[in-house]
Amino acid sequence: MRASRTPLLLAATALFASSAAFAQSTQVKIDSGTIRGSDADGVLSWKGIPFAQPPLGYLRWRALQPVKSWAGVRDTMQYSNDCMQVPFPSDAAPLGTEPAEDCLYSNVWRPDGAQKKLPVMVWIYGGGFVNGGASPPTYSGANLARQGVVFVSFNYRVGRFGTFAFPQLTAENADKGRLGNYGAMDQIAALQWVKRNIAAFGGDPENVTIIGESAGGMSVHNLVTSPLSQGLFQRAVVMSGGNGRSEDGNDLAHVEEIGENFARRYNIDPKAPDALKKLRALTAEQVTDGLNMMNRGPGPVTVSGPFVDGKVLVDLDEAYNAGRYAHVPIMIGATSADMGGKSGFMIAGAREATGVIADQGVPVWEYRYSYVADSIGRPGAQHASEIPFFFDNTAIKYGDATTAKDIAAGKLVSSYILNFVKTGNPNGPGLAYWPQHTSAGDQIMDFTEAGRAQASRDPWGTDIDNEKAQIKAALASGHYNSLVTQIGEMLDDPAASAILKRYFPDLVSSPQIGMARGMTLHAIKDYMPQVMTDAKLKALDTELAALPRKDR
């Protein structure tokens, strides 16, 4: 009798062990401790994993410090706070958490099962370097993870927390020359965390793709060229990330002046020996000071985007032209109605950056995303509208208004993305062939309004080249011009502002004018076709040409 019960006991023990192992399947040991995540619908996820110490107090405006280890098991089932900012109502990807200065956390999704050495995809959000976070529902990595990848997202500091310089910070030099570009340092630290820890989640640290949109796409360009991020990824995707050039001309000294302007905003004397201490004593709300994509604040400039410092971030033009960058497969593109129009920073910029890289023999694929969800009801894929399709999150974005055609468009483009993440080539069985870009062939893949993938020579190539010639002539004129002068520059000159108000009073008085300060009139004319006609812009340019150009 006893012998006959032994197999039953063994079977019960095995069953119990199997159940226990399944119950612990989301428990993972990383370099700072053990974490426990969630298991839902065939996907394991971990949210709110710290990858650095909170950048509070003396650690405000410092390079990241290693996270302190913890004992026991830490639950990581909810997003952490997004980084400190003032959200704005028209954001295409509203935040899912309350912003806070304690925000340096990562999130991981992977398919359920025992797979190891899965390809890794690391998402970098946009937001003009003043907004954005990892928590918006359309940034979820679950649907892509379900198809055989490990998806990672993370937060990085934005606004004055992410980019800030001050003479006393430079003199202190606590991080051995790493100054100012704290958001970029966060991105590099997150990739280093992935390198050290992703194998614990079943990912392959030697098969990592970085992908970012808008400011995130610009960040990808920065990471591809930064000496500090080399070897941390094997492929890259730039979505609406501009032309791969460092164009604002800011350096550490200029950004220090901007920091001094900000100090004066709170009556802090930049020359006082305790100025930095007082700045660090400001609340997070005071440092933010209402800043977001729609509001840069009045008076002297008090905020900067990432700048060339020579250590963390290098001059993109020099790096790309000299071949000093990660020669990894790369995908670059923009949406069909992206900011700036055909000749703008996004669309023409993507073509320009693609050509520079292709001419050096690096495999690069260019795309244009033209599909618009059926519920939108008008043609022209706007800036950032491709993200839910790329992530196969169309239904999350459009809810009950999602159509079968929308779902199919997302399945199509995300298939190319997944192939690229897995193999370094977007092509695969059952998909229309996407040729590599060459300058001679000017090849591009258009994800069309009809929801198909169509490869051809860029049909906008000639128009882009012609408009580039017009831009060159406008720049050479030395005058304000609707084609090349930023709206903010004209608004800051009383004479130019008066002319602009006469022609476009509704634009100048719009509560969203802050978002347009860094754009040109030509770049936004497609948003106001009845008001901003070619004839009206030509008449405006004639009046502006009579003004002396204001120095920067």
How much beta, percentage-wise? Answer: 5-15%
| Total E-strand runs | 14
Poorly predicted runs: 1-24
CATH fold-type name of the largest domain: Rossmann fold
What is the residue-averaged pLDDT? 92
What is the SS-derived class? alpha/beta
**Sheet with most strands:** 11 strands, mixed
For the biggest β-sheet, the strand order reads 3-4-6-8-7-9-10-11-12-13-14
Distance between the termini: 94 Å
The CATH superfamily of the largest domain is Alpha/Beta hydrolase fold, catalytic domain
Whole-number tally of structural domains: 2
Radius of gyration from CA coordinates: 25 Å
Shape: globular
CATH architecture of the largest domain: 3-Layer(aba) Sandwich
Helix fraction bin: 25-40%
Brief characterization of the structure:
With 552 residues, the protein is an alpha/beta fold. The chain has 21 helices and 14 strands. Helices cover 35% and strands 14% of the residues.
